[in-house]
Amino acid sequence: MGCYECCMRCLGGVPYISLVATLFCFSGIALFCGCGHQALTETERLIENYFARNLQDYITLAYLIEYFQYIIYGLATFFFLYCIALLAEGFYTTSAARQTFGEFRSTVCGRCLSTTFILITYFLAVVWLLVFALSALPVYFFYNMATTCRTIDVLSETPSSINQLCVDARQYGLLPWNAVPGKACGMTLSNVCKTREFFLTYDLYIAAFAGAGITLLALLTYVVSTTYNFAVLRYLGRKGLGPRC
């Protein structure tokens, strides 16, 4: 066998769909976890500086942010390992790889493993759909805040009107109802929207939301890939290609 034929057979054994899904998963999780972690830190700083004067008013929020950041660490580690496992499973069940290496045949263990990956990946996709929806909430909050600030800038010549335009962090559950001031109105709100903290936090949440969407796309691609791999294994098993464990 020549070098060209050998290279083509090796390239034919690459599970390209699983490889693309793995790249999507790595980039999406990195974007979601990295930007989400920093966005939570900036959110705490924004609330502390502009919406709450007393530490007791946002201490619960600070604890929640810390817990979510620990969860982010766990998510990054889990998805890194799980994506590697799915990619390895894709290599194992690629028909070209089985043709190249005779010992990689359809086995009972292989079909059970593929079934397990299908169920886990489907469950993760459903859960991550919820995460994707929840990650839109801070984007919605900052979008409303930016829209209100633009309205204030347009109506800046009528102070009596702009003082009625407010963003109340208590309405979004970020602060308790007895927090003081708990909201920002008028030119105070407009000045908040011009700060570095606001623009940075807004952009980070948008990036985290995009990362969640990329990760969801990767999980759906994995569902398709693992289902196809399972179908191939079942077909080979029915053809009698050594169903052993």
From TrEMBL:
Q: How does the record say this protein sits in the membrane?
A: Multi-pass membrane protein
| PANTHER family for the chain | DMALPHA1, MYELIN PROTEOLIPID
Main subcellular localisation: membrane
Q: Where in the cell is it found?
A: Membrane
Protein name (database record): Proteolipid protein 1a
The alphabetized UniProt keywords are: Membrane, Transmembrane, Transmembrane helix
GO cellular component terms given for this protein: myelin sheath; plasma membrane
Q: Name one GO molecular function term.
A: structural constituent of myelin sheath
Name the source's superkingdom.
Eukaryota
The similarity annotation says:
Belongs to the myelin proteolipid protein family.
Query: Which residues are listed as membrane-spanning?
Result: 16-40, 70-92, 113-143, 204-224
The family database entries (Pfam families) matched by this protein are listed as: Myelin_PLP
Annotated GO biological process: axon development; central nervous system myelination
